[in-house]
Each structure stands twice: as structure tokens, then as C-alpha cells.
Design brief:
The chain has no helices and 31 strands. With about 325 residues, the chain is mainly β. The chain has one domain: Methylamine Dehydrogenase, Chain H (7 Propeller), CATH 2.130.10.30.
Length: about 325
């Protein structure tokens, strides 16, 4: 079991982190004041994206080349090097409620339950419509496949081209699917994860193989449930209902558990190739490597932040 993370004084900052996304080259941390902090690694904040005029950023998803920030007005900003380069709205006028960046395509969940798809340049080139009477409630884009969670407990799987290739109903109803990291392809194949985790309504997690088949089920500790998952390149993480995080390196067994400081819980986990970030209930973030917390940090004062500087870690 990992040692206790360092302490973090949430009262020392006027903002807290509300959503995080660890990327291949850069990670983003959404703040309660509507801005977004940027890190290139090591638990140091090296940049700040201010909120747009008359709006706030409420969700971030980090990609290998470009990233996307969801705004509270229901539109999405396409981000490169921490700067907005395009604002994206749905062709039918719907508001977006979530976004997931992929290496080949990115997906924008609409308030009506459909999903818009963008293959390049932030241009919406099509939509995936759920079955009649059903809505999509989560999209998880990945290098090998994209998963769309339906509100009837079924998970749809797409292998690309904007088409649904099949559905996963082995142990439905499913509540959510693991978040995936979008990673650069190489001559040796993708560096991204080949397994995903389907969170069942009963709190267990079904693990998938490369082609979407269920390879096994992971049960949480007695009296607890799994509430969310993040699939990483080197390890994957299952968030528990008690606020701790179970870490899995291979197979269908938990290798270690990561516990937050006393009185706190982890509310989100995001795994990148070099660092994993755990969002805490006090608005701070623990940065870990190999299942061990290396640093703890919170939002910086954007008026004093310089591109080459970062917040001190504790």
C-alpha cells in the first residue's frame, strides 16, 4: 500500500481544481475560477489559460497535438500550446456536455444524447445517433476503439469511420467506461492502452481485451463499489466509492491501493505515460509515478505565473 501523500493547504489559494486530464506531452487542470493550468510534467504548473469572456471552462481533455476545453456555455474551444485556436459549436445548435479527444478523431457529447465527431481541424464531420428512445451519456475516445455509454446500460463500441461496430451487453447495465489517453502512433504500434474497464451498475469492473471481449471481472473490496476508471499505458486505475484508488498493472487483480490523506477523498484519476494525477476533494492534485505520490500542488496565482515557472510542490 502506498504511503500517505503530502499535505496540501487548500485555504492558501483562492481557486481549486475541478477537473483534470493527463496527456502524452501536456496535462491540463481545470480551475474553479474558470481558467485552466497547464503542466509539462513533474508536478509543476508552467502555463495558464484564462477563461473566455463571459464563460468558464468546466472540463478538459488533453491530446498529443491539440486538446479541447468545454465551456459552460455549451461550446468547446480547440487548444494548442495552451491557447484557444477555434471555438466549436454543434451544427444543430445543441449544447455540448462533455468532450473526449482521440488521436484519430474526437467526440463531443450533445445535450440531446447524440455525439458529434471531428476527424481533423475541429470541424464537425458527422454525428453518431443512439438507438431510438436511448441517449449516450459518456464518450471515451481511444486509439484502438471508442466507447459510448448508453443510458439503458449498453455500451456501444466504434472502431472508426463514425460507425458503431458492435455493442457490449455481457453484464449490463453498465454505468460508465474508463477514460483513455490519446497517444501518438509509432512504427511499432500505439503506445496507448489495449484494455479498458466497464463499470457495472453493481459496482464491479469488467476488463476488456484488445478487441472488446470481456477477459474478467474485478470486484471491489466488500461494502464498496467502483465509480469510475482510467485506462493507462503502464497501469490502470479504478476509483472506489470510499475515495481511494485501486491500481492494476496486468491481469484482473489489484496490485496496490492509493489512499488520500485522512478526511479527504480522491474524486478523479487521470493516467498519462509518465505521470498519473489524482484530484482530491480539497481541490489539490497528487502527482504519482509507479503508484507512489511524488508531489502535491494546487492552482497558481495566474498574475505571477510565468511560462517557465511553476507552483512549488509540497
Amino acid at each position: 500500500m502506498a504511503e500517505q501523500p503530502p499535505s496540501y493547504d487548500a485555504a492558501a489559494t483562492s481557486a481549486q481544481y475541478t477537473h483534470i486530464s493527463s496527456g502524452e506531452y501536456v496535462s491540463y487542470f481545470c480551475r474553479s475560477d474558470g481558467g485552466v493550468d497547464r503542466s509539462k510534467g513533474g508536478g509543476k504548473i508552467t502555463g495558464f489559460t484564462p477563461p473566455p469572456e463571459k464563460a468558464k471552462y468546466i472540463m478538459v481533455t488533453a491530446g498529443p497535438d491539440v486538446s479541447y476545453f468545454l465551456r459552460d456555455d455549451g461550446s468547446v474551444d480547440r487548444i494548442k500550446n495552451g491557447k484557444p485556436i477555434k471555438n466549436i459549436t454543434s451544427p444543430d445548435g445543441s449544447k455540448y456536455t462533455a468532450v473526449s479527444v482521440g488521436f484519430y478523431a474526437s467526440y463531443f457529447l450533445r445535450e440531446d444524447g447524440a455525439v458529434d465527431r471531428s476527424k481533423s481541424g475541429g470541424k464537425i464531420d458527422g454525428a453518431l445517433n443512439p438507438p431510438p428512445g436511448v441517449k449516450y451519456i459518456q464518450a471515451s475516445a481511444g486509439n484502438y476503439a471508442t466507447y459510448l455509454v448508453q443510458d439503458d446500460g449498453v455500451i456501444a463500441r466504434s472502431k472508426g469511420s463514425g460507425k458503431i461496430s458492435g455493442t457490449m451487453e455481457d453484464n449490463k447495465p453498465y454505468a460508465s467506461v474508463s477514460v483513455q489517453i490519446a497517444a501518438q502512433e509509432s512504427q511499432y504500434g500505439s503506445r496507448c492502452n489495449q484494455n479498458n474497464y466497464l463499470i457495472r451498475a453493481d459496482g464491479s469492473a469488467d476488463k476488456t481485451k484488445h478487441f472488446g471481449a470481456i477477459s474478467g471481472t474485478i470486484a471491489p473490496p466488500p461494502g464498496l463499489t467502483y465509480t469510475a476508471a482510467c485506462a493507462g499505458e503502464h497501469a490502470s486505475y479504478l476509483l472506489r466509492s470510499d475515495g481511494a484508488v485501486d491500481r492494476i498493472k496486468s491481469g484482473e487483480k489489484v496490485d496496490s491501493s492509493m489512499n488520500p490523506p485522512p478526511g479527504l477523498t480522491y474524486t478523479q484519476v487521470s493516467a498519462g505515460p509518465s505521470s498519473t494525477y489524482l484530484l482530491r476533494s480539497d481541490g489539490g492534485v497528487d502527482q504519482s509515478s509507479g503508484g507512489v505520490v511524488k508531489s502535491t500542488f494546487g492552482p497558481c496565482d495566474p498574475t505571477t505565473l510565468k511560462p517557465s515557472s511553476g507552483c512549488a510542490v509540497m
